[in-house]
Amino acid sequence: MSTADVLPPVGFPTGGEPAAEPSAESPGAEADEPEGVDVDSYEEQSMCSVCGVGDSWDEDQILFCDECNVPVHQACFGAGAREVPEGDWFCDTCRLGKVTGKKIKAECIFCPQPSGVLKRTSDARWAHVTCALWIPDAQFLDVDGRDIVHPYAVHPERLSLTCNVCGEQMGACVQCTEPKCLAAWHPQCARVAGVQMTLTEKADGEVQPTIYCKKHEKGKKKQKKRSRESKW
Ligand SMILES: [Zn+2]
Ligand SMILES: [Zn+2]
Ligand SMILES: [Zn+2]
Ligand SMILES: [Zn+2]
Ligand SMILES: [Zn+2]
């Protein structure tokens, strides 16, 4: 078996928008859509904690950690989730806890967000896979396995940004991809809050992360509809 068969280069279909959107397509229905995101809803809890997509594919299923219950695609997690396990599956943090028999208190070096899936850093701390993917200067030493986060090139300017979700100024935030927009978030905080985030694979295989604030969201069906309606 080759791992290429089970692990597509990027965790989800490129292009950013998942095909299956929950359909509330009646005209005008989007007008009174609530602004806030109910992070406690069941749907939200079964979405991949890295890419935010709730769809599961045969070759890239969403696994739930049998200890902390975090949902994550096999490909989004990378090494450690390449094959669907026969029995229990544990994320890296919980697996270490099982092996050592201790409760591992893992905190992301980039953000204070308690939920989400973490991987080891090169200095034996922890970082969210999401944070490592969206913070441009962070990198994985094992790129294919999305393993061993190497944070040392993170620009000092990121440390001075304040997160729009948790309000904290620590770790590293990313700013809205729209030039000059000052909105900033910790990537995992943004994921939890439902901020629009995509990963697109460029021709050279490099992964390009984007993140957009509500004002600058791209390619949403309802957004196009709204602008068409506004011409009336
Ligand atoms: Zn995913
Ligand atoms: Zn876990
Ligand atoms: Zn984080
Ligand atoms: Zn935050
Ligand atoms: Zn923006």
Structural description of this entry:
With 232 residues, this protein is an alpha+beta fold. It has a single domain, classed as Zinc/RING finger domain, C3HC4 (zinc finger) (Herpes Virus-1, 2-Layer Sandwich), CATH 3.30.40. Helices cover 18% and strands 16% of the residues. It is built from seven helices and ten strands. It has a two-stranded antiparallel sheet with strand order 1-2. It has a two-stranded antiparallel ribbon with strand order 3-4. The longest helix has 9 residues. The N terminus and C terminus are likely disordered. One zinc ion (ZN) binds next to helix 4. One zinc ion binds next to loops.
Kindly provide the radius of gyration, computed on alpha-carbon positions and rounded to a whole number of angstroms.
18 Å
* The named CATH superfamily: Zinc/RING finger domain, C3HC4 (zinc finger)
**Using DSSP, what is the number of strands?**
10
* CATH architectural designation: 2-Layer Sandwich
Helix content: 10-25%
